[in-house]
Amino acid sequence: MRVLSPTSAFDIVDPEQRRDLIRRNDRAIGLWLLACCAMVFVMVMLGGVTRLTQSGLSIMEWAPLKGALPPLSEAEWQRIFALYQQIPEYQQVNHGMTLAEFRGIFWWEWVHRLWGRLIGVVFLLPFLWFLIRGRIRRGLAPRLALLFALGAAQGALGWFMVASGFADRVDVSQYRLVAHLALALAIYVAMLWTALDLLRASERWPVSRHLASHLKLALALLCLTIAMGGFTAGLHGGLVYNSFPLMGGEIAPADLWGLAPGWINLFENPAAAQFVHRWLAIATMATVLALGWRDRAAGSLPLRLAAAMALLQVGLGIATLLLVVPVPLAALHQAGAVTLLTLVIWALHDARVADGAAHVKAS
Predict the structure, then answer these.
(1) Pair 221, 284: CB distance under 8 Å
(2) Which residue has the higher pLDDT, 293 or 66?
(3) Torsion angle, CA of 305/307/310/312, rounded to 10 degrees?
(4) Torsion of CA 306, 309, 310, 314, to 10 degrees
(5) What is the mean pLDDT of residues 139-156?
(6) How confident is the model at residue 178 (pLDDT cuts 50, 70, 90)?
(7) Which has fewest Cβ within 10 Å: 63, 105, 144, 257?
(8) 328 half-sphere exposure, CB direction, 13 A CA radius
């Protein structure tokens, strides 16, 4: 079999052969990117469980290469446990924790970091192989290189987040937590969109400009809801006002705006963060359900799935709140958010504005 140079794959003279080769290359790269998306999805879930189990501060060293290995001796376990005992989380929350208990939280954080390293390997090695073999269409390589660079930046941002919990507080900064989550999802969406570009170039459904704007509104609301979910989680807002739809018997309890200036309550007051998150979630669900209703004639698969997922996601959120944030249910709720984001992005990607087309009914 002839080894292609970096450009020979796209220098084939016969147009049909060239198109066929490009289609096969695009499909291979698109499937690889979807596999990377799946790994990022799992990474977000691991990050959520790490936070829920209060494991994120258990590793106090940043060692991108050496850190891939866990402690291999009792002396090493004692050393890293001694480091953990120096921080406020141990002194104020977990004082008296045994080494065996420390290992329980250590493994969650270690697996989370290891999975991030594996994503880097699974992305970088195939990327280089596709590049050397000349299988990446012109213009796509810089986008893929940028995705890898963002992944590296995400690792650094993760350490920046963790370091915020080493002094003066017993957990990480909610601002850095949301930034870490937002970058992870931005990478996920960019990777997913690129994969869809390669795999579904011809799979489009016509929509009116009104419905396209409705889709964008749903995406904006969903992003805001996820961001406020991050602040709610970072502030442990799910542990207060565990009732629905009222909060302490009121729609809006008196302590929502207890901090000054008022806007800071959204980001530093657990009750206010939860209040905004829960009603943004309801607004997002209503918007997605309305999308499904408007598109009922065309019957777009991602929108049908998104409508069902929006209902399920709100149900998971309410159950998580009422049961005072059990780890499995809270992790499912986070997975539901990423699943709903996936479906909305899929629908938005495949939508093709076709104003004036007689067959476009969703307007």
Answers:
(1) yes
(2) 293
(3) -70
(4) -170
(5) 96
(6) very high
(7) 63
(8) 0
Q: Residue 355: which pLDDT band, with cuts at 50, 70 and 90?
A: low
The tokens 């970091």 sit on which residue?
113
Full 3-state SS string of the chain: CCCCCCCHHHCCCCHHHHHHHHHHHHHHHHHHHHHHHHHHHHHHHHHHHHHHCCCCCCCCCCCCCHHHCCCCCHHHHHHHHHHHCCCHHHHHHCCCCCHHHHHHHHHHHHHHHHHHHHHHHHHHHHHHHHHHCCCCCCCHHHHHHHHHHHHHHHHHHHHHHHHCCCCCCCCCCHHHHHHHHHHHHHHHHHHHHHHHHHHCCCCCEEECHHHHHHHHHHHHHHHHHHHHHHHHHHCCHHHCCCCCCCECCECCCHHHHCCCCHHHHHHHCHHHHHHHHHHHHHHHHHHHHHHHHHCCCCCCHHHHHHHHHHHHHHHHHHHHHHCCCCHHHHHHHHHHHHHHHHHHHHHHHHEEECCCCCCCCCC
- CA 21, CA 135: separation in Å to the nearest integer? 9
Checking 233-237 for CB contacts under 8 A at 24+ apart, the result is 233/48, 233/51, 233/174, 233/177, 234/171, 234/172, 234/173, 234/174, 234/175, 234/177, 234/178, 235/174, 235/268, 235/269, 235/270, 235/273, 236/171, 236/270, 237/270, 237/271, 237/273, 237/274, 237/277
What digits encode the pLDDT tens for the residues 102-133?
A: 999 999 999 999 999 999 999 999 999 999 99
Q: What mean pLDDT value characterizes the chain? A: 91
Q: How far apart are CA 247 and CA 278, in angstroms?
A: 11
Its pTM stands at 0.92
- pLDDT tens sequence across 73-100: 999 999 999 999 999 999 999 999 999 9
